[in-house]
From TrEMBL:
Record-annotated GH3 C-terminal domain positions: 392-494
Species of the source: Niabella yanshanensis
Boundaries of every GH3 middle domain copy: 299-364
InterPro entries hit by this protein: GH3, GH3_C, GH3_M
Name of the featured protein: GH3 auxin-responsive promoter family protein
Superkingdom, taxonomy of origin: Bacteria
Length: 510
């Protein structure tokens, strides 16, 4: 069986695989200059005077002063929309051949994110970097890397426009554009990967599972867990290692793994290594570079220039929208333990682009971060400042305390009896007393969030809970056309999404 470690990396690529050094600011300045030089003749570069920015004494600050912050709606309406008409040289040189369709958990129902050849090349280098980093892990996992890998992602059968560009899940684009040397050990293979129907794709993977020697799996936790559960049920085995004895590495990203870990590990016959990466439609942002690292390390030397907006009321309104005069910090200006929203500047033509994630620095010197939530997925009706990070922590502790599995959940807030209230919707197929579970979650949040504890004695008068079977959550995603792949269930329900959720629970339709 061929394996990825048998592949000889060309010297030119090998030289490009150096990991970030401690001088992240110097690396970031070099990246910004490279991006500005490449894009200076685009319409965006001409409008915002990239040539003049490059000549300034402080390139970073001059760039920030010249270019406004963009959320998706602003950059799409002002710039990216014309790339869908085939107009070249808008925010990046050339025509855009691929567009990643986002999971649509906020803002527009479907976001079209430009994916350029330059971006794909950068992503490939980062994948190789991540793979090489795994060889520093314990010996057992090196054996896993000699086996096939299973990528559970979106369809590679992309939508083709009348003018020639393609659109689909980023995972599908990456699978379609995978290097030739991946072919021999990549599963589920081209035919199955091209299937659009998620249920049919899972069925095919299950049918062929015994034929493969899987060493590592890549994908979003919820869908990988579902796949393994189906395999275990199909072949009447006790755990997934009875089918794939060499399975040793799980590469995951997109959502926090905390709520899934307990139920995930019930499917295993022996310990495995978990590797978190930070891959968004806009770029490969970071990954866990060391086995016992506190968080994921930002990739500061490969075509992404980062800025960090403190996630507070000075920079964001009550709905999570960034303010026009928001303060944006550079990589050497951030502080330990504080939450920031990320702005990306990339070789796909994203400029000061708010991707919507919030992160926290666990190690400033090493640029190690954890994802704490989304700018629009938080609850602060009365100043409780309840983040997704807080929610994930409470769910993880509840899983352990009650010995149950909660694979999905969502929370909403609303006016109640002249005050306000939260309601939790919990997915579990295990038996648990709802009142006890609610009290445990509430007490946990009080212990980890002082603002929440304070407001629970005043304006946040009540909290409620509704326990639902996991199938309900999956059906809602299916009806929205978001079943499978990289799609994530929203942790906080607001606006139209909440209306659809309420309608679905009442009628089974949206």
């Amino acid at each position: 069986m061929a394996s990825i470690i048998d592949f000889k990396i060309p010297k030119a690529i090998a030289r490009a695989l150096g990991l970030p050094t401690s001088d992240a600011r110097k690396q970031q300045r070099k990246v910004l200059k490279k991006l500005l030089k490449k894009a200076r003749f685009t319409e965006f570069g001409q409008k915002y005077n990239f040539d003049q920015v490059l000549l300034s004494k402080n390139v970073e600050k001059s760039f920030q002063q010249s270019v406004p912050i963009h959320d998706y709606n602003k950059i799409y309406n002002d710039w990216w929309a014309r790339t869908l008409d085939g107009v070249p040289d808008i925010t990046w040189p050339g025509k855009i051949e691929y567009f990643a369709l986002s999971s649509g958990t906020s803002e527009a129902a479907s976001k079209y994110i430009p994916v350029t050849k330059d971006l794909l090349r950068s992503n490939t280098i980062n994948y190789i970097r991540q793979l090489i980093s795994v060889f520093s892990y314990q010996e057992a996992n090196k054996k896993a890397l000699r086996k096939s890998f299973l990528m559970i992602g979106g369809t590679t059968d992309l939508q083709k426009s009348d003018i020639g560009w393609y659109a689909g899940d980023l995972s599908g684009i990456l699978a379609k554009k995978r290097p030739f040397w991946f072919q021999t050990f990549y599963k589920p293979g081209g035919r199955i990967a091209a299937l659009k129907d998620w249920n049919e794709k899972l069925k095919e993977i299950v049918e062929h599972a015994r034929e493969w020697d899987i060493g590592y799996i890549v994908g979003v936790p919820a869908w990988c867990q579902m796949c393994m559960e189906m395999i275990i049920e199909k072949y009447k085995v006790n755990n997934i290692h009875e089918i794939w004895p060499n399975f040793g590495v799980f590469v995951h990203g997109g959502v926090s793994f905390q709520p899934y870990k307990k139920s995930f590990e019930k499917l295993l016959g022996k310990p495995i290594v978990y590797i978190e990466n930070y891959l968004s439609s806009e770029g490969f942002i970071g990954y866990k570079m060391k086995e016992h690292a506190l968080g994921m390390q930002l990739i500061t030397n490969n075509n992404i220039f980062f800025e960090f907006v403190p996630f507070d009321s000075n920079n964001f309104d009550a709905d999570g929208n960034v303010k026009p005069d928001a303060e944006a910090l550079l990589i050497d200006e951030v502080e330990y333990g504080k939450d920031y929203a990320i702005l990306l500047n990339t070789n796909a033509g994203s400029w000061r682009y708010l991707i919507g994630d919030t992160i926290r620095f666990l190690n400033v010197e090493k640029c190690e971060v954890v994802i704490t939530g989304r700018t629009k997925h938080f609850l602060s009706l009365v100043g409780e400042h309840l983040s997704v990070d807080n929610m994930n922590c409470a769910i993880e502790k509840a899983n352990n305390h009650f010995n149950i599995s909660i694979p999905e959940y969502t929370v909403t807030g609303f006016p109640y009896k002249n005050y306000f209230a939260h309601k939790w919707y919990i997915a579990t197929d295990d038996n648990v007393d709802s009142a006890e579970l609610l009290k445990f979650i509430d007490d946990t949040l009080k212990a980890i969030n002082d603002d929440y504890a304070t407001e629970r004695t005043s304006a946040l008068s009540d909290i409620f809970i509704e326990i639902l079977p996991e199938e309900k959550f999956l059906k809602f995603m299916e009806l929205r056309g978001k079943l499978g792949s990289q799609n994530k269930f929203p942790r906080v329900m607001k606006g139209n999404m909440l209306e659809n959720w309420d309608k679905f629970l009442a009628t089974g339709k949206i």
